[in-house]
Amino acid sequence: MLRQGLFNAKVSKGPAKRTISLGSPQGNITLIGSSLPVSCRPGDEVSSLTIRPDPEAVGVIAVSVYDRGRTKEASERIACLFAVGHTTDGESRINLENAFECDGERLGEAHWEGFVEVWVGVESYHSFNTDKFPQYKRSGRYVPDPNLLCRYLVGTASADEVKAAALKVEEDQTELEELRAKVSRLTELGIHDLTKLSGLNRQLEEERNRSEAILETAKFWRGVAFALWAVLRKFGPLFQGFARKLCDSPRFKRAYANFSSWTYPTEAFDRMDKEDFRLGDWGEI
Q1: Are 23 and 7 in contact (CB under 8 A)?
Q2: How big is the chain by its Cα radius of gyration, in Å?
Q3: pLDDT for 181-228, tens place per residue?
């Protein structure tokens, strides 16, 4: 049984009577999570909030308020889970007299620190962000969406969805730790400024571009070499026949004999008969 006077609720007037306004005479209230549409976000501290119940099913909302006792020592923050549904005549209703009662398969609670915790089997899942509050340690797996945990409590979300949300956070955390390790390694190498790192990236990009240009040039000359090889392979016999005919001609033999009989080629050519150099005489080749 909750202490009377912590919260008050007002159902909207009119034929629909579909929304509920929730507040507290103690002061502002803080939304922890909800399985229903609410007028604020988890973590917001407001004077009042509006809930839109589901006409087909019971919902749950988790809120906290600072209970101001007669003395400062007696004051404390209290968190509550409230069931939200409809009366038999279809009017929206929130039970402020008793906390939400979980069934035997879906257990959970709201904590005054501002998070929801549920149990899937023997494993705990909670919305307490240990990165935001590193001074506090909490066992269990972290789920950043408290509304998902509230939906799990009323059966509109499955255990697989809760596990998948926790797994996604753990995978992101692993990637973050790997990134931190890389940054630490860069720091060890003396790269303390990311602008220096970007400068190194530009240098690597320039070297990569130069390497690609050299590779393209090598590919071009390789193509030229293959083309020349193909030409020589096709016309090589013709060149060989021309050279053989040239060497067998009488004029070439006599010129070679005169040339080889002297020490210096110029003297050999001076001794040669000028008639041997007539263009017409080479026509026989």
Answers
A1: yes
A2: 46
A3: 877 777 776 655 555 666 667 778 888 888 888 888 888 888 888 788
The DSSP element (H or E) to which 150 belongs, if any, is helix 146-154
pTM of the model: 0.61
pLDDT in tens, 61-110: 999 998 876 666 657 888 999 999 887 777 788 888 888 888 778 899 99
Helix (H, G, I), strand (E, B) or coil at 91: coil
Spatial distance between the Cα atoms of 175 and 188, rounded to a whole number of angstroms = 20
Q: How far apart are CA 34 and CA 40, in angstroms?
A: 10
Taking CA atoms, 184 is separated from 102, 177, 178, 179, 204, in Å, by: 47, 10, 10, 9, 21
Which position has the token pair 């935001």? 132
Pairing of strands 123-126, 141-142: parallel
